[in-house]
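agent: user wants the structure for U3 small nucleolar RNA-associated protein 18 homolog from Xenopus tropicalis. delegating to structure tool.
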Amino acid sequence: MKEEEELRTKHLKALADKPETDTILEEFVFGGEDEFVEKLIGHSKARHTVSGDLLESDSEEETSENAAPLARKPAWVDEEDEHEENIEMTHRYRKDIMKSKTETALSKEKLQARLQEQFQKAMGGVPSWACQGSKKRISKEDEESEEENDDNLLSKTGNLLSQSSYLSKGVIQIRKCINANHERLSRVPLTTVQFHPLAQVVMTAGFDRSVSLFQVDGKRNQKIQSIHLEKFPIYKAQFSADGEQVIATGLRSKMFYIYDMMGGNIITVPRIRGLEERVIQQFEVSPNGSFLLLNGSAGYLHLLSMKTKELIGSMKMNGKSMKAVFSPDSSKVFSNSDDGFVYVWDVRSRQCLNKFTDEGSICGTSIALSRDGRYISCGSNSGVVNIYNHEDCLQQTNPRPLKAIMNLVTSASSIIFNPQTEIMAVASNKTDDAVKLVHIPSFSVFSNFPGQNKKSIHLPRAMDFSPRSGYFSIANNKGEALLYRLKHYSDF
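agent: tool returned. relaying tokens verbatim.
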């Protein structure tokens, strides 16, 4: 019993050190999913009360239906808590939830209620990702309603109509939604848009020095939080594999930041021992969460431990390293160079396994691997995107592309496959509307996107698909994160 009390005291003290907003964000967005669902529907077996900054859980079962609950004393009493009657609302972590300028302070109980109200509203109820993979069935009435009024895109999270199990080529059923970052548009270019791997959340980042999180519902896409990095225009930001952290590199800096969403703090990663780079911009996180790969100068790729942020080793190619990606199992790295070659590296030994020519390429600009490991796609400065069989790239020095996508006329800056390997998105940040969606495995371009009537995508900078492809987003030079609903897919 004594050991349990000590552990309990230690846990409560850790929670007490967190700001109120970070604690609520952790519990309602990224924290324990089962507990979160139970809280929302009001059937939690555990009864939670907040005293100051301390979360106390009473999960003791009643001995009988008529037994009165036992009153429990707090683990300890902090004398300072008794004096902190009101919470200052003008603090930068709380000012977003003020209802008026005169509301400069709230009691702790009212603040908690306000935060719960905000995040429950942002969640729109119980999101599909929090239901342990269960899918909401759509009734016949719902299907008829959507057919009659196709403009009513989403009534609730998960209410997405799936029309077939196999995506057909030709025309894609796609709908433009309100911008993902509608509640916080940027006045300068966005460089990143990425969906969270677990939560129904999207992240944006860019030259405005901010990382922002939004709850995706297709209607309002309410802002959850924004983190500002002083004097640090963001070149790229990416979630860690488990979704608990955000890594961000700058436009002109050799240091980078890590935002720990579980701890609610920002970690500065200064100069890394053994790494002689003046600027760190391009990077990738391995799918297994173990490694961080940095694109260096003079053809170097640097492999870091994601846990310790220490340098494990480096790999060197002849030309300048342009882009690099991990294989789905994190055992290999594929990188392309400015001389038209693609290198295949073994992560464990950091030795080159193969080097092949990207057919027709003078300078590589982008590279992507499909989630199922079947395809490798390489983009060049001419706009041509070659799609290769994965095995051919491991064994041959001059593999023939399965297909050359030639719909872009300027440099292919971005390539991404959707999680089901049924769509490949390619884009160029040199021209408006230069985004194409390619059907896999027919390798044909969907004819109706982005459309022919008017320009709608201004200089696309980054793209991403949601975890189950229900949504597709494009970050552009106008500071918008354009959001599209892919109607073929029934889940987020």
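agent: one observation worth passing along. Residues 108-123 form the longest helix (16 residues).
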